Amino acid sequence: MGDLTQETGRDDGRHDERAALLALDRLPGVGPRTVHKILSRFGSGRAAMAARAPAFAAVAGREAAHARRVEIDTGASVRLLDRALETGMRVVAFGDADYPRRLEALADPPVLLFFRGRTTLLDAGGVAIVGLRRAPARARESARALGFALARRGVTVVSGLALGVDGAAHVGALEGGGPTTAVLGTGADVPYPRSHTRLFHRIAEHGLLVSEFAPGTRAAPWHFPRRNRVIAALADDVVVVAAGARSGALITVDHALDLGRDVWTVPGPIDGPGYRGSNRLLQDGAHPLVSIDAFADRFGPPVPSSAPPRSTGLDGEARVLDVLADGDAPLDDVAARVGLPLPAVLHLLTSLELAGVVERLPGARFRRAA
């Protein structure tokens, strides 16, 4: 890879090719589609980084050509790739033998993927559960119950770790003792939103975190539509629990339909703004999901377990949320008003916090998330 290889002193061609691909993907105005055009023109990332400026600019644009020179001089992508490996991430490049086959079907497959956790889940298929960040309580409860039911049947739950429906689906899957995959709009070492930090680490331990963004990458609005195509590709079915007229979940649906995936929708109130998009999907031919057990049974019976499944605690959570509807409150006040022991209420509040529904404040106070 020319100067970048010389700077690091590495002779590992595979490592240097991945660093080149990462450098290309990070150039301004260059995304996966353009990187694939660049690879088609020059044959490899290393060749593209070493190509003459006019030839490179003809494919990637002048701004990217100028930024490429800066990248070569600084070797920033080499250091980012080293950082990923040093922190235990697994890195796979498009074209590698172990690149996920499911993602190759995309029109713009990720150039690089960074993983933390059980990489075997990449080929497991499963069900994507998506929906609103500011989801109504009934939608969050449905997502959590659905995640739980699927996990009890060994089905991988795929979602995006966002507030609302996503977080509830992941929590349900973890409570059911099953696998869950979170596709991130940040680097695989950056929990987002911050209120999901504990959930992020639980998924890294028991499931899989997937990102196409370099370590340290912070959230940006344009990352999440890009993430949604990966969610659709990793699943066999997509379930929309609640979606407004312009919900990002509808982007996931578009990708799912392009890939030939089945799309399911949980019906919502006809006058509910948080269901306009999902109800429209029903009108357009999506499968209605009207029974969680019936849907989950399509994948087989619950896996036998020596221990009873953990309760999702939805009734208790509803009571806690009713208390917090009046504003923030200290833990002991919440317990007194709910009428449950302090440890039980703390458990409920912690679960709600992991799902992004409740926020913890200084002084052991809690409030509903905005």
| Beta strand % | 5-15%
The main β sheet shows up as: 9 strands, mixed
**Mean pLDDT metric:** 89
- Indicate the percent of residues in helices: 40-55%
Distance between the termini: 48 Å
Characterise the protein shown here:
By secondary structure, the protein is an alpha/beta fold. Helix content is 48%, strand content 13%. The protein has 18 helices and twelve strands. It has helices at residues 3-8, 13-25, 32-42, 45-50, 53-60, 62-74, 76-86, 101-104, 137-152, 165-175, 197-206, 223-234, 249-258, 276-283, 292-297, 314-324, 331-338, 342-354, and strands spanning 90-93, 112-117, 127-131, 157-159, 180-183, 208-211, 237-242, 262-265, 287-288, 329-330, 358-361, 365-368. The strands form two sheets. It has a nine-stranded mixed β-sheet with strand order 1-2-6-5-4-3-7-8-9, with helices on both faces. The chain has a three-stranded antiparallel β-sheet with strand order 10-12-11. Helix 13 (249-258) links the parallel strand 7 (237-242) and strand 8. Helix 2 crosses helix 7, helix 9 packs parallel to helix 10 (165-175) and helix 10 (165-175) crosses helix 11. The longest helix has 16 residues, at 137-152.
